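tool_call: predict_structure(chain=1)
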Amino acid sequence: MAATILAAGQGSRMGFRPKATIRIEGLAVLEWQVAALRGAGISEVTVVVGAYQDQLAPLVASCGANMVVNASESPDLVTSQCTALRAHRDRNPGADMVLLLGDLPLLRSHHLLRLKDAWLARDDGVHALVPSVAGVRGHPVLLSWKAIQRMGTEGDTGGVRAWMSRNKASVKFIALDDPAYVQDLDTPSDIDVVAKLLRAPQSTTGA
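tool_result:
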């Protein structure tokens, strides 16, 4: 199993800054995510970057991760997903994939291990696993190598979500009650929300 973190967004609602570099309790979001992945036994990590390549490259390198560039003139989620899928097929043939948005600061290794356990226990016909919190789709999404191959055969049309819509019988949603799977950093006010969640006495987002 290998992981790819999508960090190519322009961060317009965050004041045009790379969200993966935002520091939470002393570490950049990307550092938290890579540490969580490695703590869950996923050592092969790739980061998709875009507009902020110069700012993100040193951070990616310091994390010991690989970097690929979304070369689209207007990087968005779909083009980043397509970049991620192509890179995964080239770098990690035969491996299942953990696909993670680069602005989820609360994910820790125990969150990922819970998904890995569900992945290993899935039925044979399940090729995509998606966490869901209170009906909201979360991340990361886990994809089988077979699904990744199929997307390539179809030209990665529409990205991962479009593929899942076309193959609903192959997708399993797992209901969870932890905000770590859905709490992202879209606006500056979200930084305060994350800080409050981390200070909560019985927070489920701790390490």
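agent: The domain at 2-199 is CATH 3.90.550.10 (Spore Coat Polysaccharide Biosynthesis Protein SpsA; Chain A). Proceeding to next step.
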